[in-house]
Design brief:
Blueprint (H helix, E strand, L loop, with lengths): L5 H30 L7 H12 L12 H19 L17 E3 L6 E2 L3 E3 L9 H4 L3 E3 L14 E8 L4 E7 L14 E5 L3 E5 L4 E3 L5 H23 L1 E3 L5 E3 L3 H33 L5 E5 L3 H4 L6 H7 L1 H14 L3 E5 L25 E3 L6 E3 H18 L1
Parallel strand pairs: 7-12, 12-13
Antiparallel strand pairs: 1-5, 2-3, 3-4, 5-6, 7-8, 8-9, 10-11, 14-15
């Protein structure tokens, strides 16, 4: 995380604006070319056009910023446009100043990382020594960044999350995976009462029911009410009987506090998921099985939508997937229509109906009684075992 001063903050926002402009410009060029019946424009062609554009009086301001910012933004736009026609993603949208996340690229050759600071390219246009200090931005944490002569950086990106500026960079590292001491596989069932239930019997509680989360949510509601009242006090009536809201400095301060509290809630939940997924991976299972949940469909239930959204199931799956990949553990996603909750983990018979209110699974064939979530996790573990054995 960065700790920039006011001048550096201004420069960082300007660089993000340049990246957004270059992305939108490249996307516009591709669309105009397609409408005129032309073939796909490669990024090298668009970069040459932009170089000629910089020579004009109207666009000479682009010379005050790093060439790598516009270069990578054009490459990103071309890749997004190409991915759409190859049916990998949706049609790319123009980046909005209000809605899109401010970010830009830095060259791996020009970026310099030390224990306490990071040097970015061309934040200061002057070559004087006292002006060049603007390029060096202080880091919030010391001795955390990987530094050294043999370390290679990949795809450095500077991003603003609404509160702070962050540097994300890929580092090449040799990973050694040893599968000798791995135990049997595990199945993980996600739920609302408890966040995760493992086939070994281990349960992880729903953190949203904790005192810390409830106090933070209560504070958020209070801040939102205060902000709403301030907006009402500062509304001005215009022609046609409509109202316009004037944003004062106090309103901006209140908005910042609301945003900060939202971020705090998100960080608490994600940190809790990180602790769970790391502890599960450290047990060295042979494989991990999870359900491919239809979260969008589950959110249509108005009574449970808030509780489901707060559990962040997708984030749990994402973390589990990449941590398994890092440690050489096989990650298996069970079929979406696999009846893990309705199947008896002892005899294998499938129950016709199982309502959400039934917290204990009772098998109609053998009479076996077990917690429904634990039963589902055991079935998932058996599902993974059948795949691994074949």
């Amino acid at each position: 995380m960065f700790l920039p001063n006011n001048k550096q903050k201004t420069k960082l926002f300007e660089c993000a604006g340049v990246a957004r402009w270059a992305y939108n410009w490249a996307l516009e060029q591709q669309q105009i070319n397609y409408q005129n019946g032309g073939k796909f424009l490669y990024d090298s062609v668009l970069r040459k056009r932009l170089t000629e554009l910089k020579k004009t009086e109207e666009y000479k301001w682009l010379n005050n910023y790093s060439n790598n910012i516009t270069k990578q933004a054009i490459i990103d736009a071309c890749n997004a446009y190409k991915n759409f026609f190859e049916s990998r993603t949706k049609f790319p949208k123009f980046k909005s100043k209000k809605r899109s996340k401010p970010s830009f690229y830095q060259s791996t050759a020009k970026i310099i990382i030390t224990d306490t600071r990071v040097k970015l390219e061309k934040l200061a246009t002057s070559k004087k020594r006292n002006k060049q200090k603007l390029n060096w931005i202080k880091l919030a944490e010391q001795d955390r960044a990987p530094i050294g002569k043999n370390i290679k950086y990949y795809n450095p990106r500077i991003t603003f999350d609404g509160l702070n500026w962050w540097l994300s960079v890929g580092v090449e590292e040799n990973m050694k995976c040893n599968n000798i001491n791995y135990s049997d596989g595990i199945g993980i069932d996600l739920g609302i009462k408890d966040l995760a239930i493992v086939s070994t019997g281990q349960k992880f509680k729903n953190i949203n029911k904790s005192t810390k989360i409830k106090k933070t949510e209560k504070r958020l509601k209070r801040l939102q009410r205060r902000l709403s009242k301030k907006y009402e006090l500062n509304k001005i009536q215009i022609e046609g009987g409509e109202y316009r809201y004037r944003k004062t400095k106090n309103i901006k301060k209140s908005e910042f506090l609301v945003q900060k509290t939202h971020k705090k809630l998100k960080n608490i939940r994600h940190d809790y998921i990180h602790q769970i997924t790391t502890s599960l991976v450290r047990t060295k299972p042979k494989y991990v099985v999870m359900e491919n949940l239809n979260t969008c469909g589950m959110l249509k239930n108005r009574k449970l939508s808030k509780a489901i959204q707060e559990q962040v199931f997708h984030e749990f799956k994402r973390q589990m997937e990449y941590k398994c990949m890092w440690n050489g553990i096989q990650f298996i996603l069970a079929d979406r229509f696999y009846p893990s909750s309705k199947t008896c983990s002892k005899c294998g018979s499938v129950k016709d109906k199982l309502s959400l209110s039934e917290r204990t699974f009772i098998c109609p064939e053998c009479g076996y009684e077990i917690d429904r979530d634990l039963n589902a996790s055991i079935n998932l573990q058996q599902y993974g075992k059948s795949i691994v054995c074949h």
